[in-house]
Amino acid sequence: MREHISKLFAVLLLVGSIYGFILLKESKVKNKPVSVVVIPTAYVSEVKNESVPVSIMESGRISAKDKIDLFTEVQGVMETSSKEFKPGSSYKKGELLLKIRSDDFYANLQAQKSLFQNLITGIMPDIKLDYPEAYEKWNAYLKSFDMDKSIAELPKPGSDKEKFFLTGKNIYTTYYTTKNLEIVYKKYTITAPFDGILTEALVTPGALVRNGQKLGEFINIGEYEMEMSISRALLNSVSVGTEVTVSNPENPDQTWIGKVSRINGKVNSSTQTVQIYVDIKGDDLKEGMYLQAELDGKAKLNAIEISRNLLIDGNQIYVVGSDSSLNLTSINVVHKSRDKAVIQGVADGVWIVDRPISGAYVGMKVLVKEEN
Predict the structure, then answer these.
(1) Which of 1, 56, 64, 173 holds its CA 20 to 30 A away from the CA of 234?
(2) pTM greater than 0.70 (yes/no)
(3) Same domain for 286 and 347?
């Protein structure tokens, strides 16, 4: 009995071992992965060429139309004036901007005027004797001579003989020498050429000002100019006098109406753009403000407008063929704005991709879905 039980246990152990070996072998067999093909969705729209209005938008900083750098042509010490020579100081046309001490030069000018007056006085007896017909005009000139005023223009000689006589007496040489000193003397005083404001001041009262030294910057705060770059293809849409809407990007409620004042006659060879200049007026405008300008150009016929991020290499876009696969087609970009592009060259009825597809390539199969 005990022998039969041992044999039965041995058989069960053998069967269990075989079964366990089979299970272990099956567990090591790897399941083959099931390949899943994902077809991307292409959002498309049907091309319908039409007349597309073109709006040209550019941004830039404005600068004062009337702006001058102040320089001195003489040397001396800057004097104190009634108004501080500092940025922000405003002046009316003709008002004193800056004065340089000119006592020494003024004394030399007055000495030269006295010399000229004495020279004319010395020739009066000869004129009365040899040119009696000219005596009255020279006598009147001498009586009206004022040391505190600019010298008047010389009387015109009545004959060549009188002219040669005056030349021999150094009348003309002395006159122009004195006139030149008067011109230089005026340069010691600088006045405002127009109503404006001082935006830069590089000297202070008491400082020594040298010939050719820059003193500051003066601008007209009423008129400004903005420079824009437009595509050469749109140049026929713009002319001098075209109205431009200018706005403040930080405050869209602030708008101004400007006009194109100048158009550059040169095309930038690298960008194929042309510079145009817009005049703007406004009390709340400031030098250096960053503004945005918009003007309406001529509408483009047989064109469509797409998002700029759909452009491939600048002159191609993806279209969907009849077999639901992607293809590239060449197009002509006639205008670009910040986010949009106006293109030509795509036939009516063609399905174009409206949204970028990640990893797109020619021949890719797509699931077509028309845009609403």
Answers:
(1) 64
(2) no
(3) no
